[in-house]
Design a protein that fits this description.
The structure holds two protein chains of two kinds. Chain A is about 0% helix and about 50% strand. Chain A is mainly beta. By secondary structure, chain B is an all-beta fold. In chain B, strands 2, 4, 5, 6, 9, 10 and 11 form a seven-stranded mixed sheet that branches. The chains are: A mainly beta, B mainly beta.
Chain lengths: ~110, ~110
């Protein structure tokens, strides 16, 4: 069965500092990996996705993620965070196509001035 | 606006009652997924429909049911509601061969 672990429940970062959110997955075949962001009271918005090719993928809002098969990880990074990045971030894994996604428990990001 | 429309946005109802949540997918998307988001369970996959047919089932209670209509909108029916059913219910859709969903803004259900 597929699963996703986001080990950090809550992270606090100063505005302008770099950010890395961790995601580890368990999946029997080649995974399709996603990062979503959820602002309070909103739905989830797709930040980026990986399913093949270059292991470093670029997303919206200046985010990037790196797929490391040997570590079963797909960590999300941003070189300099903005106050508007405060939100909940979810990592997800799936089989691709129109298959369902399995989500991690999320990491809540707080930005301090 | 993501293009996925969910109604109503908020719903307050009493225990034992039945409610229907509605979802209109993005134009052209054939797949609809329902998720439940609660503080203790996180995002739980409930059920998926593809072009009117049930495609996959997750942790959906027997008291819950769903369907997708010929115009591709979907409804999630929740019956004999309990306090623990209070949660955010999200609908998402995806196009044929796509990778990743587009989510609606959710329906917040409060059972009192």
């Amino acid at each position: 069965a597929q699963s996703v672990t986001q080990p950090d429940i809550h992270i606090t970062v100063s505005e302008g500092a770099s950010l890395e959110l961790r995601c580890n997955y368990s999946y029997g075949a080649t995974p399709y990996l996603f990062w979503y962001v959820q602002s309070p009271g909103q739905g989830l918005q797709l930040l980026l996705k990986y399913f093949s090719g270059d292991t470093l993928v670029q997303g919206i809002k200046g985010f990037e993620a790196e797929f490391k098969r040997s570590q079963s990880s797909f960590n999300l990074r941003k070189p300099s965070v903005h106050w508007s990045d405060a939100a909940e971030y979810f990592c997800a894994v799936g089989a691709g196509g129109n298959e369902k996604l399995t989500f991690g428990t999320g990491t809540r990001l707080t930005i301090i001035p | 606006d993501s293009g996925v429309t969910q109604t109503p946005k908020h719903l307050i109802t009493a225990t034992g009652q039945r409610v229907t949540l509605r979802c209109s997918p993005r134009s052209g998307d054939l797949s609809v997924y329902w998720y439940q988001q609660s503080l203790d369970q996180g995002l739980q996959f409930l059920i998926q429909y593809y072009n009117g047919e049930e495609r996959a089932k997750g942790n959906i209670l027997e008291r819950f049911s769903a369907q997708q209509f010929p115009d591709l909108h979907s409804e999630l029916n929740l019956s004999s509601l309990e306090l623990g059913d209070s949660a955010l219910y999200f609908c998402a859709s995806s196009e044929q061969g796509s990778y990743g969903y587009t989510f609606g803004s959710g329906t917040r259900l409060t059972v009192v």
